[in-house]
Amino acid sequence: MNAEGERIVEHAVAYDLAIANTWYRKRVSHLMTYKSGRNISQIDYIVYHRIHLKEVRNCKVINGESVAPQHRLLVADCDIKIGKRMKLKCIRPQMIKWWKLKEEGPRDGFVHKVLSELKSPEDVQEWWEMQHRFQ
User: Is 85 left (phi over 0), alpha (psi -120 to 50) or beta?
Assistant: First the structure.
């Protein structure tokens, strides 16, 4: 382990993190992420919060895939659980209860609100009265 490796371990200990690559027993060929000639080393790591480590099922190097000619792809299989705080609520549009306008109280409140929002309430008032003459 070199100085950079020691710093990664110190960082993981300080912030209560786990290095996922080190939790699973693998062959050397499945641990090494860098290969150049005869030099091979493990230079890529997946760091995870220790309390969530049970969500990581496996961490492996895919030998056949190369990101760059000398690097191997590092993959972690995770089952991320969504807690109560992270659940998304199904948001439906609010249903308009048009039948409530048949009652006098809600109808008057609706008319008042519409008239207060419009620029020329006289025109709307005439239209509204004309509509109710035919019913």
Answer: alpha
Per the structure, the complete domain to which residue 50 belongs is given by: 3-80
Residue 58 tokens read as 């496996």
How far apart CA 124 and CA 126 sit, in angstroms, is 5
Residue 30 and residue 73: Cα distance in Å, rounded? 10
Assess if residue 88 is contained within a domain.
Answer: no
For 23-34, the pLDDT digits (tens) are 777 777 777 777
Q: Model pTM?
A: 0.47
* 70 and 103 assigned to the same domain: no
The continuous run of DSSP H or E covering 74 comes out as: strand 71-78
